[in-house]
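Weekly modeling sync, notes
Attendees: S.R. (lead), two postdocs, one rotation student

Agenda item 3: backlog of single-chain predictions. S.R. asked that every request posted to the team notebook include the full sequence so nobody has to chase files. The rotation student volunteered to paste the first one in as an example of the format we agreed on. Action items at the bottom.

Example entry:
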Amino acid sequence: MVFEHEIPEGSKLYFAATAKTKRRIETKASTLLSDAGFEEILTPLFSYHQHQSVSDEWELIRFGDSKNHSMSLRADSTIDVVRILNKRLGGNTEHKKWFYIQPVYRYPADEQYQIGVEIIDEPNLSVALTQATRILNVLDMQPLLQISNINIPRILTEMLDLNLDDFRHVNIEKMLSLKIDWLTRLVYMQHASEIDAVVEIVPDPIKPELMKIKELCVGLEYPNVVIAPLYYAKMLYYDELFFRVIEGNEMYAMGGRYKSDETVSVGFAIYTDALIDALHQ
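Predicted structure, as returned to the notebook:
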């Protein structure tokens, strides 16, 4: 039995103080990004291409259009933003810096508000990371910033008796059981200052990937930073440097470098619902 006052589990309801906080977060972010030269974009709620963005397609809420073509509710914004800018707008705009404030939806009724940024044709993740930390700073929040490189787990699966699930599920016991000194040091590495010593003993394919992490950390004006060289994100499009902002089991933001239709770009999403909860605790 469904009562008249019930809302579906996973959907969001904000009113009074929390609605005001949501609006404050979005206003501060949009003002900051607009002042930094970003233009706003709002993508359609329905999409034909979400299967290219979401690793588990069962999470998509699917429908058929009038011609019975499969489409779904927007479950992720990144690839649709890039495709619309490159394919639909094309020569009508040369602007490369965009942001959006809109929800995404996952099966069966999970609703998540996001503030997202995409910088098209930009390979330097620090450009996006700077904007993400500026938004957190203006909200007086400094959760843990974790920086990784997805290429490192991928390379290690080709070299060692490991698979991506070992990295995705942080199977430290299996990694340590291999009794490889440089791998053990990567497991426990937390600070960019440790990279110079370790880079001398890791296999050659790993060296440049570790240096990319170090270069991203140089000059980063954020007080709460760790590195996690072996972390692997379960995403279809992030392909190299990657960051997430976390506190305990809560994720506040996530971003990285990605390629879509041969265009290398960087971007991130800030999870508004998690920020609202944190600011009201």
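Discussion: group reviewed the output briefly. The two ends are 32 Å apart (CA to CA).
Action items: rotation student to repeat for the remaining queue; S.R. to check formatting next week.
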